């Protein structure tokens, strides 16, 4: 695992310890540590200032292909593996604190900003888990025809996106978990991301093409709303009203 300064080409840090291909890396919330997962079935936590390995977790029994760190707690991070499990690790306990069975080889995991919900993708399924209830399954979505390879959450948190080998990107509402939009592409999708404020979607495909789509800007609305004229029924209201006993009639 190598750490680079984006202004230069030489690596600032290099962490050696994995024996096979590394598939996922992420910074922890405090930015002083990096978590990584690899095909050697291990998950490792690295200390950036000292360039040293702090912890190694060997609880997965197959390739570790995806992972993410909590944005709130620097000690928590999640990994997904081809052993069909998603595990949440706590650096303070040296072991996993939650483990859920996805049912398919896990290709992508995503923690919601609050840290209370977790999304996992594998096979044709996208599953949402409640981490506050020990990893209870909330909903299982099966809207793709082939393996789901990637997940992404919009900046507002109101939309969840999934990309698949069926060449489609599905957009879900995070309140109803129903598909509200879909994008079609020319090849199978391996990765996707949204730019700031969700104005641009970027998709990487198996044919080597990186697709960039921009959202059309909405037409500017009038600064002053138009005054609505009263409807005709407003003027004839009460035309057929019958005088009651205590009413006073004025012609």
TrEMBL record:
PROSITE patterns noted in UniProt: WD_REPEATS_1 (PS00678), WD_REPEATS_2 (PS50082), WD_REPEATS_REGION (PS50294)
InterPro entries: WD40/YVTN_repeat-like_dom_sf, WD40_PAC1, WD40_repeat_CS, WD40_repeat_dom_sf, WD40_rpt
Tagged with keyword Ribonucleoprotein: yes
UniProtKB keywords: Nucleus, Repeat, Ribonucleoprotein, WD repeat
Compartments, record wording: Nucleus, Nucleolus
Database matches in Pfam families: WD40
Any one GO BP annotation for this protein: positive regulation of transcription by RNA polymerase I
WD repeat residue intervals: 15-56, 141-182
Any one of the GO CC terms: nucleolus
Lineage top rank: taxon: Eukaryota
Protein name listed in UniProt: UTP15, U3 small nucleolar ribonucleoprotein,-like protein
Taxonomic placement: Eukaryota, Metazoa, Chordata, Craniata, Vertebrata
